[in-house]
Specification:
CATH class of the largest domain in chain C: Mainly Alpha
CATH class of the largest domain in chain B: Alpha Beta
Largest sheet of chain C: none
Strand order of the largest sheet of chain B: 2-1-3-10-4
Number of helices of chain B: 18
Oligomer: heterotrimer
Distance between the termini of chain C: 22 Å
Number of domains of chain C: 2
Shape of chain B: globular
CATH architecture of the largest domain in chain C: Orthogonal Bundle
Largest sheet of chain B: 5 strands, mixed
Structural class of chain C: mainly alpha
Number of domains of chain B: 2
Largest interface: A-C, 106 and 105 residues
CATH superfamily of the largest domain in chain B: Periplasmic binding protein-like II
Distance between the termini of chain B: 67 Å
Helix content of chain C: over 70%
Strand content of chain B: 5-15%
Number of strands of chain B: 11
Order of helices and strands of chain C: HHHHHHHHHHHHHHHH
Number of strands of chain C: 0
CATH topology of the largest domain in chain C: MetI-like fold
Order of helices and strands of chain B: HHEHEHEHHHEEHHEHHHEHEEEHHHEHH
Radius of gyration of chain C: 24 Å
Chains: A mainly alpha, B alpha/beta, C mainly alpha
Strand content of chain C: under 5%
Chain lengths: ~300, ~425, ~290
């Protein structure tokens, strides 16, 4: 009896168990993606305008957007965050992962503390940086350089061209913990016997790291780059925090901020343009796709699958 | 085992939080009723039958701000008197972004407030024409003419906004520091301003401070407007004539000289609100800002300053003098689709006139909206004589922030100029390159 | 485990050799702790003291009333409870939807399995700005923008792909023996899942539940758009609004108290469960 009905029951179960998740997927992801793509080919003023009021204009939105200097500058900012921030975060987290997997006493304590910034609300974190570290009257950097009598105490990290870099530094600082843990996971999964053999052959720790660890970490590296790219495209709160009380500022704006401004109309008295916001969204998704493709092309994932 | 306990804890937290939020909701509604009890007017009328009408008001204030407290009291008093409930959603400044999508979507909102030019211009299609209601209630004679004129100019003479919390702008200074430096007369021309700066610097204080953003935009905006007038500046912005008008370079040189001569504090332009707070710490004598700045400085630093005021000085060969200034206000809009326009208007009238208006002015040291309230709060009273003489009104930042496509570039260039990363020539170059 | 043994043998000479490493990560940790410590100190101080750089002197004593002020008059209590509601509902809701889905995806071969999995992985890497506009119009046409329900619904949906993907590996690693034994005992498959398989996957469920909780607690953009009025706001935009208001009212002590109140729950949660969380990231990160 049981055996006979087993398959049928399973089918029912598969349908029952899968339907809610798939339904959610359709409502929250598939439908919005399709609508966003469609919207980017129309002229739409407000986000919630009925489809009947949309006016088809082909790729005009894309052409306009790619000629809008402020959007291009926001792209440039994002690229800078991705590139410089990426290098710094990957290098530091790799270094920390290497140090901490080396048998350091107090490893658990260190990695817990280093990860802390990740679990703190970004608004709280940004407030801390802006006040505790960068404030030029009472911030840490001011006091630090003041203690040594250095002129650096007078640098204003929150204005002019320094603003972008202070933003980047704070953002990167918070990201290190996460990538460090991923790298540590990768390193700890590597087969120990290879290192034992290398130690017997007289290879130094550094050499072991560059010759064995790094090449074997390619798959993990790919994961990190992927996560980093997704994270940078969603760059919004930090930018808002750094430009407060203004809605946005040239030196710290990103495509996400631009999308918010153009869709909800924070740009002075210029009119809202929801379709343009959708166009920004599509372009960002394409960017992510291209980056994924490049990462997959450049880094061959041939390390030991664990 | 340990993990299953965890699950239980998590579920417990979940359930508790739902209960708490439910309680929280109840608590907040009771707190608003306790507020109403504190207003004297309520006691006699608290028995008024509820009409069941509820108006929804999206407010630009956060509930903790001084303005919000006065508005909440006014709403409670209004409900007590008429039985009409005003449901206030404290949205904060983001209401500017959220109001239009919400109204497009048919959300039921009756009243919202924002900058009065924003309502008259950008949001005018959502705002009801209140000209007749204002006339009928005789409200116009309580309003500042300059605001009414500006508001009407956007909608062919129709009034779509009821302004309140007006502001003016100019240089706010510490009178004691001026005395110490032996300055007897406030400057009326830019050259005199430079003299005043020199004297202040000699006396050992920073002459001026400013904040990056609005602060620097005001500096450059005023200087440009003194040379070119409001229309001239708008022409620059909208037609990108930065390279063709020679006054741009002159204005940039003037502003640059303030920084280069050390007339600005060493930290300027600072991150808001550090620059203006320097006045509160007794380090700096002057700041160019709108009339909310004395209150902000006092709140931020606890300083008690004897405030003086003078309008931004005139320049040689300029179009405008001290008779022109940046004035503005917040404003109330009644939503076009509202069913209760008259009720909304009646409520707004209680906020912008008489006792409530006076309370608002005292609470945050702002200028009274009702012209019948002649007594200005002490901190801003220095601006009163100039305000009354003012004949020309500028837009906020003289319109430098109007054009969404490149306001960020103008701001960036101004910031660089103030940081002395570029000079006047560089300023002109970077803007004419757009 | 092997590594753990290696690290726990405290060998002074070796640690001395590793001193540069200790210094580098030690300074980094010191900086982090110092920053948090300063915020806590500043939250017990007054605005003028903070501004004059005397936050650590406590010349006027410890101002615990900053916390009272932040909690009640700065409305942090409302934001806090909202976030608690959003985060816990999302955690429970997404688990309730994802765990069964992950179970069948991880243990059964059927047509479309691979497609659904790939769909979820794609959804995880989709930039938020790609989906937010239609969601907003959906919410407004359903006249739900002012309610908490819509945000919770969206949050749950947003977390489903990640939660499912994370749990698939946990379910697929379980032994077949349990289900076979259950089937022999006459237990129907669905009951088998709830009674036997789900409890077996508990470590994974707890880990991903905590992640969901923290993600939602720290979420900003969706809350900004879908819960714009103060009574619905979560801690992120709420704190931002306190910050904005603070620039007009100048209550820095209250602001820092608010900051502490906002980060404390996740910090405590993390410190208590750091081992689960950290091992979850290392495992999930590599697989993801």
């Amino acid at each position: 009896m049981k055996g006979v009905f087993h398959l049928k029951k399973d089918k029912k179960m598969i349908v029952c168990f899968l339907t809610p998740a798939v339904l959610m997927f359709f409502i929250i992801f598939l439908y919005p993606v399709v609508r966003t793509i469609a919207m980017s080919f129309f002229r739409v003023e407000g986000v919630s305008d009925a489809v009947s009021t949309w006016e088809f204009i082909g790729i005009e939105n894309y052409v306009t957007l790619l000629q809008t200097p402020i959007f291009l500058d926001s792209m440039k900012n994002m690229l800078k965050i991705w590139f410089f921030g990426g290098i710094v975060v990957i290098l530091i987290s790799l270094l920390f992962a290497a140090i901490l997997t080396n048998g350091l006493y107090g490893k658990t304590f260190y990695k817990t503390v280093i990860y802390i910034p990740n679990i703190i609300n970004a608004v709280a974190m940004a407030t801390m940086w802006i006040t505790a570290i960068f404030n030029k009257r009472f911030g840490f950097l001011h006091n630090f350089f003041d203690f040594f009598g250095s002129d650096l105490a007078k640098v204003d990290y929150m204005s002019g061209s320094a603003k972008f870099w202070s933003l980047l530094a704070a953002f990167c600082f918070g990201s290190v913990g996460y990538y460090m843990l991923i790298f540590m996971g990768g390193i700890e999964r590597l087969p120990l016997d290879m290192y034992e053999a290398a130690t017997i052959d007289g290879a130094s720790k550094t050499k072991q790291f560059t010759r064995i660890t790094l090449p074997l970490l390619r798959g993990v590296m790919k994961t990190c780059l992927t996560f980093w790219s997704i994270g940078v495209v969603g760059f919004f709160v930090w930018s808002q925090m750094w430009s407060a009380p203004l809605a946005s500022e040239l030196s710290t704006t990103t495509p996400f901020v631009y999308m918010y401004n153009i869709t909800f109309g924070t740009q002075g008295n210029t009119f809202r343009n929801a379709a343009m916001g959708a166009t920004v969204g599509v372009l960002m998704a394409l960017t992510v796709l291209v980056v994924f493709f490049l990462i997959n092309l450049l880094i061959k994932d041939d390390d030991v699958e664990v | 085992m340990k993990t299953s306990k965890l699950l239980k804890v998590v579920c417990g937290v979940c359930a508790a939080s739902m209960m708490l939020t439910a309680c929280g909701g109840a608590a907040s509604s009771t707190s608003s009723t306790t507020n109403s009890e504190s207003t004297p007017a309520t006691d006699s009328t608290s028995q008024t039958e509820s009409t069941g009408k509820t108006l929804t008001y999206w407010s630009m204030w956060n509930s903790t701000e001084g303005q919000a407290k006065v508005i909440q009291e006014a709403a409670d008093a209004y409900e007590a008197a008429t039985g009409i409930k005003i449901n206030i959603e404290w949205k904060g400044r983001d209401v500017k972004n959220l109001i239009a999508p919400a109204l497009d979507a048919g959300e039921k909102i009756d009243i919202f407030d924002q900058d009065y030019v924003f309502i008259s211009n950008t949001a005018s299609k959502y705002a009801a024409d209140v000209t007749d209601m204002v006339e009928e209630a005789g409200l116009e004679e309580h309003m500042l003419p300059v605001l009414v004129e500006t508001a009407k100019s956007y909608n062919d003479g129709a009034l779509k906004v009821i302004p309140y919390q007006p502001y003016t702008s100019g240089v706010w200074y510490n009178k004691a520091m001026f005395e110490d430096a032996g300055i007897e007369k406030v400057p009326e021309t830019f050259t005199e301003l430079l003299d005043v700066c020199a004297k202040l610097k000699e006396s050992g204080v920073n002459p001026m401070a400013c904040d990056q953003g609005d602060g620097t935009a005001l500096l450059m905006g005023y200087q440009l407007a003194r040379y070119l007038g409001q229309d001239g500046v708008l022409d620059l912005v909208n037609n990108a004539k930065w390279g063709e008008v020679e006054e741009v370079k002159k204005a940039a040189e003037d502003i640059h000289s303030l920084f280069a001569n050390g007339y600005m504090s060493e930290y300027s332009p600072s991150n808001y609100p550090d620059g203006q707070n320097e006045l509160g710490y007794g380090e700096t004598a002057m700041v160019l800002q709108a009339s909310w700045v004395p209150n902000e400085i006092t709140q931020n630093t606890g300083a008690e300053i004897d405030w003086g005021f003078f309008p931004w000085p005139a320049v040689e060969g300029g179009v405008d003098g001290i008779e022109a200034g940046m004035v503005g206000a917040q404003g109330y809009a009644i939503v076009e689709t509202s069913e209760y326009k008259q009720e909304a208007f009646d409520f707004i009238q209680t906020v912008v006139t008489g006792e409530n208006d006076l309370k608002m002015a005292q609470a945050v040291s702002s200028i009274p909206a009702d012209t019948a309230n002649t007594e200005w709060p002490l901190a801003v009273s220095g601006a009163e004589p100039y305000f009354k003489e003012m004949t020309i009104s500028y837009l906020w930042a003289v319109g430098l922030q109007e054009n969404g496509n490149y306001k960020d570039y103008i701001q960036e260039a101004i910031n660089q100029l103030c940081k002395q990363e570029i000079d006047a020539t560089g300023f002109v170059d970077s803007l004419s390159g757009l | 485990m092997k590594k753990f043994k290696r690290a726990s043998t405290l060998d002074m000479q070796k640690q001395l050799r590793l001193l540069p490493g200790h210094i580098v990560v030690g300074l980094w940790c010191l900086f982090t702790i110092g920053m948090l410590g300063w915020i806590v100190a500043a939250s017990l101080s007054t605005s003028p003291e903070i501004m004059r750089g005397e936050a650590l002197k406590f010349a006027t004593g410890l101002h615990f009333e900053n916390y009272v002020k932040a909690w009640s008059s700065n409305n942090i209590s409302v934001f806090f409870l909202n976030s608690l509601l959003y985060a816990s509902c999302t955690m429970v809701g997404s688990l309730a939807i994802s765990a069964p889905a992950a179970y069948v995806l991880g243990r059964y071969v059927f047509f479309g399995n691979k497609l659904v999995r790939n769909g979820f992985i794609t959804a995880m890497s989709l930039p938020q700005i790609m989906i937010v506009l239609p969601l907003f119009s959906l919410a407004t046409s359903a006249e739900l923008t002012g309610s908490k329900v819509v945000l919770i619904f969206i949050y749950i949906g947003m977390q489903v792909p990640y939660t499912t993907t994370f749990l698939i590996s946990f379910f697929s690693n379980l032994s077949r023996v349990y289900e076979e034994a259950a089937a022999i005992d006459g237990c129907p498959p669905m009951k088998t899942f709830w009674k036997i398989m789900l409890p077996l996957a508990q470590p994974g469920i707890v880990t991903v539940g905590i992640f969901n909780f923290m993600n939602i607690w720290n979420e900003y953009f969706l809350s900004l758009i879908f819960a714009s009025s103060e009574r619905n706001m979560s801690v992120g935009p709420g704190l931002k609004s306190v910050l904005t208001a603070m620039q007009y009212t100048g209550d820095w002590g209250g602001l820092f108290a608010a900051v502490v109140i906002v980060f404390l729950p996740t910090l405590v949660l993390f410190l208590c469960l750091s081992r689960t969380i950290i091992s979850g990231i290392t495992a999930g990160g590599v697989k993801g």
